[in-house]
Amino acid sequence: MSNLETAPEELVCSDHRACAGIELLAPRDVPLGGPRAMDVRRTLPQKQRSLIGAWCFLDHYGPDPVGASGGMRVPRHPHTGLQTVSWLFTGEIEHRDSAGHHAMVRPGEVNLMTAGRGISHSEFSTPDTTVLHGAQLWIALPDRARHTAPTFVHHRPEPMGTNDWTVRVFLGSLSVSADRGAEHYSASPVHTHTELVGAEILMEPGTRIKVALKAHHEHGILLDAGCLKVEADDVPVDHLAFLPAGFQTVTLTAGSKPVRALLIGGEPLHEQILMWWNFVGRTHEEVVKYREQWQAEIGAEPGDASARRFGAFPDGEPDPLPAPVLPTVRLRPRN
């Protein structure tokens, strides 16, 4: 999904010194367009924490009645240096990209798009979708992989669990057990360029589970719905609980309402990245170049797609999104 902010702030994202305990990250509301456009709740990046492993962006939206919000209508737009992860709870989205991939995003299925050196894509909720609800996440590619060719992977993970809880692991691997219950393990075949984990967790009221974690990873748990304790801390709905490296397990306890949550995590990236609009780069000059190339390509006559960083699209598609105006000052870290 595109960041449709008309004046996106530049962010230089780097690993933070780990805190001793769980940190709650509150969402901020971000309007993605005009009066009928979707609003999202953004928990990454923010001032106090810009990365969880290599996860660098998390937008959480819905449940939105499409008749009121207009649904997702994001014409062709560019990306560099990242992977996008689409995960839906309700609804359906049509994906099309300049590498030739055309797929549907459905609940319980992950779409992972690797932008690499550059890709463009569009996302539209389907005509049959009445309620749209889900999350869009970005993963920063490490320097060794950020100039690779663009790719796309679709995967439907098999759920693991019992009648009281279900976990779908869409990236990485997890081991989960309930009180006095057997341990369940699941691993995703989807390739990533750094060690990562991503999973949807469903819990019935009163259920408690223990999730085994890699101690050298950072983790985040986003509560979509219900009442949830992470260890001894209550997590408000729409908030992201951050667990620094060092946790070998985490205990999750559902309260009086059914829980739906997303767990993300990974090894710290140990690289500084510069994010502006839909581009992830390393320097001001790189981001300026990406913007110039995108603007030139969307205004050019059809031609050899191999000469275009962001590829070509079929005829008859809606007009692409132009890039916002760059700030008048050099892109740099915020104080």
Tags for this entry?
single chain, 335 residues, mainly beta, Jelly Rolls, 7-stranded antiparallel sheet, 27 strands, Pirin, RmlC-like_jellyroll, Pirin_N_dom, Redox-sensitive bicupin YhaK (Pirin superfamily)
Q: How would the blueprint of this fold be written?
A:
Elements (H helix, E strand, L loop, with lengths): L10 E3 L9 E3 L2 E4 L7 E6 L10 E11 H4 L3 E7 L2 E9 L2 E5 L4 E4 L4 E5 L4 E7 L5 E10 L10 E5 L4 E2 L3 E7 L1 E6 L4 E5 L8 E8 L4 E5 L5 E8 L2 E3 L2 E3 L4 E4 L5 E6 L4 E8 L6 E4 L2 E3 L2 H15 L37
Antiparallel strand pairs: 1-26, 2-23, 3-4, 4-5, 5-12, 6-11, 7-10, 7-12, 8-9, 8-11, 10-13, 14-15, 15-18, 16-17, 16-19, 18-25, 19-24, 20-23, 20-25, 21-22, 21-24, 26-27
Helix content: under 10%
Total count of strands: 27
Write down the CATH class of the largest domain.
Mainly Beta
Strand content: over 45%
Biggest sheet statistics = 7 strands, antiparallel
- CATH homologous superfamily designation of the largest domain: Jelly Rolls
Mass-distribution shape? globular
Class by alpha and beta content: mainly beta
- Give the overall average pLDDT: 91
Q: From the alpha-carbon coordinates, what is the Rg to the nearest angstrom?
A: 19 Å
Largest sheet: spatial strand order? 2-23-20-25-18-15-14
CATH arch. level architecture of the largest domain: Sandwich
In summary, what is this structure?
6% of the residues lie in helices and 45% in strands. The protein is mainly beta and 335 residues long.
Polypeptide structure, described:
The chain has 335 residues and is mainly beta. The protein folds into two domains: 27-156, Sandwich (Jelly Rolls), CATH 2.60.120; 158-270, Jelly Rolls. The chain is 6% helix and 45% strand. The protein is built from two helices and 27 strands. The protein has helices spanning 66-69, 284-298; strands spanning 11-13, 23-25, 28-31, 39-44, 55-65, 73-79, 82-90, 93-97, 102-105, 110-114, 119-125, 131-140, 151-155, 160-161, 165-171, 173-178, 183-187, 196-203, 208-212, 218-225, 228-230, 233-235, 240-243, 249-254, 259-266, 273-276, 279-281. The strands form five sheets. A seven-stranded antiparallel β-sheet has the order 2-23-20-25-18-15-14, with no helix packed on it. The longest helix is centred in the last third of the chain and has 15 residues, at 284-298. The chain is globular, with a radius of gyration of 19 Å. The model is unreliable at 14-19 (pLDDT under 50). Pfam families: Pirin (PF02678), Pirin_C (PF05726). Residues 200-296 form the Pirin C-terminal domain.
